[in-house]
Each structure stands twice: as structure tokens, then as C-alpha cells.
Amino acid sequence: MSDVKPEAHQNVYLQNVVTGATANPVMQNPDAIDEEFIEAANRVLKNAVELIRVLIGAHQSAIAIIVQEDWSSIRKFFSLSEKYAAWAKYDTPATGYGTHGWLLRHNQPVRMTQAELEAHPEWKGFGNEAGKHPPMRGWLAAPIVGQDGMNWGLLQLSDKYEGEFTEEDEKHFISFAKLVSETLETLWNVRNLRKNAPGR
Fold first, then answer.
1. How far apart are CA 139 and CA 39, in angstroms?
2. Mean pLDDT in residue range 167-180
């Protein structure tokens, strides 16, 4: 029988909004249609990051959209369980340092124990954020890839409720990442159709 408390399902992250983002390079002068797309996309990301954490059963999840590999334009969302309440206000945006940047180049899902993660040549121990960033315990991560193969960001989990992430977890996680990608791509296509509508 699991000893996981119900509170573990609640997201304690207090600022689940875009963190530290500059102007989006794809939409330098957003109009009303662009703003509607941004609002819808952010809503998808905010809900997805919490849903995948609860579905797989992990204490941490994060999702980030990095537009055209420009880390200054990052849109990042977190979901943290009660275990990580001390980090509820953590809002430093990722910069592409270490394994974050490596995953975008690798462009394939990964599943690692904490020992495997720390043995990875791109593991930097959070760099300047060491001691501030929530500690990790294992890593399940996947790129968010469009139909054209373009990598738009990443989805990740850490610290499974019980044991290590399994092959079955990874299979469901990858399917979820694909669903997020397809949803965002559909929103983007709708935005483009509206922008190019005759008589607009």
C-alpha cells in the first residue's frame, strides 16, 4: 500500500506562469490573434505540466518552450509536490546550460537514474543555481517536436513517488509529450489560418 499523502498531488508552485521571458522572436509585434494563441498555448502548458506529474506519479515536473533555440525567450512552467514546498517560489528561467541544452541537441527521450544523470558528461550540478534549484532524483525527459522535426522545447519529470522511472512510465510520457506537441502545433496552425484569412 502506498504511503504517499494526498498533498503530493497538489501543485505547490506559486508562480506557475511564464518565467523571465523576453519578446517572442516569432511574434515580434503580436496582435490580438497572436495574443489569443499565446494565452491558449500557455494554458495548455500550465495544465500539461501538472497533469503529467500526477499521471506518472512524480514530485517534480517542468515544461519549457524555447523558440528557435533562443533561451532568452523561454516559456517555462513547473509543478512541484508538497515535498518541494520550500521551492514554491523558485522562478529562475533555464538558460540552456548542461543537460537542458544537451537534450535539445540530442532530440530524443531519455530516462536516467540520479546516478546516471550525475555521471552524464553534460551534468553541471545546476551551475550558479546550485543550492537554489530544487534537487533532482532521476530524470525522465522528452523533447517537444513538431511534425517537421523542429524541436520547440522539452518536458521533464524528476523524483518518482516510489522507485525509479520505468520503461512503462517512459512509454506513456513520450505519448503525452507527442500529444502536447500536436496540441500546440494545432493552435499555431489555427493562428496562421486566422492571420491569413481573406479580408482580414
1. 29
2. 96
